[in-house]
Amino acid sequence: MAKTALLVMDVQRDVVELADDGSGYLPRLRTAIDAARSAGIPVIYVVMGLRPDVPDAARSTRIIRTVEEAGLFTEGARGSEIHPDVAPLPGETVVTKRRAGAFSGNDMDLVLRTHDVDHLILTGIATSGVVLHTACRANDTDLPFTVLSDACLDLDPEVHRTLTEKLFPQWAEVTTAASWAESIAR
User: Fold this and answer.
1) Euclidean distance between CA atoms 108 and 132, whole angstroms
2) Which range is most confident: 13-22, 59-68, 108-117?
3) What's the CA gap between 159 and 132, in Å, rounded?
4) How much of the chain, in percent, has pLDDT values that exceed 90?
5) Are the C-beta atoms of residues 136 and 128 closer than 8 Å to each other?
6) How far, in Å, CA of 25 to CA of 160, rounded?
7) What is the Cα–Cα distance from 138 to 132, expressed in whole angstroms?
8) Residue 1 above 60 pLDDT?
9) CA–CA distance from 94 to each of 154, 158, 178 (Å)?
10) What are the beta bridge partners of residue 91?
11) pTM tops 0.85
């Protein structure tokens, strides 16, 4: 029987510190995580992880240079850990990616097939990064998805608004964490 999975993407300590605007992002995300767990929906965590000295990324790439200069996403660094307010439970899957999208340089396809997943619920930081790249991949491969707009966050609120109100609705359902949690509790 095919099913839905909740993806919690790039909600790592350093990223939360940079992006959290004090609007209650982590509690909203926690609402979605708790609802998924209660409904038996797999929660799959996706983290960005670059090896120290970044041997797996071309420094000629602007975003990789920016990430490296900021000291973000280094495997094993405390700042690269999943934020403790939304940390995985023992047995929940954590997938490490090497680029922006949840499917980049990892076994995400295998993880989804193993769980018989045919619908994704997207959350994470940043809306213009991991959420957008993952949405593009899902859209290109005809994998249905839903975006929880208030369980996504971006450094640029206008970009977040444009993506969640204009682009993503062309491809998928866009709703809030509370509305989604209520819909799966029925």
Assistant:
1) 16
2) 108-117
3) 11
4) 76
5) no
6) 13
7) 10
8) no
9) 22, 30, 24
10) none
11) yes
Q: Are 185 and 63 in contact (CB under 8 A)?
A: no
125-133: average pLDDT: 97
Beta bridge partners of 94: 45
Task: Tally the residues of the chain.
Answer: 186
Enumerate the β-bridge partners of residue 3: 117
Q: Answer whether 156's CB lies under 8 Å from 128's CB.
A: yes
Burial class (CB in 10 A: 0-12, 13-18, 19+), 58: exposed
Which residue is it, tokens 């682009």? Answer: 167
| Ordered domains of the chain (ranges, CATH) | 3-185 (3.40.50.850)
Give dist(CA 30, CA 13) in Å, integer.
15
Q: Which tokens hold the place of 117? A: 């997943």
Angle between helices 177-185 and 25-38 (to 10 degrees): 20
Tell me the C-alpha to C-alpha distance, in Å, between residue 166 and each of 26, 54, 153, 181, 182.
24, 35, 16, 23, 24
pLDDT on residue 186: 77
Could you tell me the two tokens for 45? 């965590």
Residue with tokens 């983290």: 47
Instruction: Return the higher-pLDDT residue of 73 and 175.
Output: 175
pLDDT, tens digit (0-9, with 9 covering 90-100), for 137-151: 999 999 999 999 999
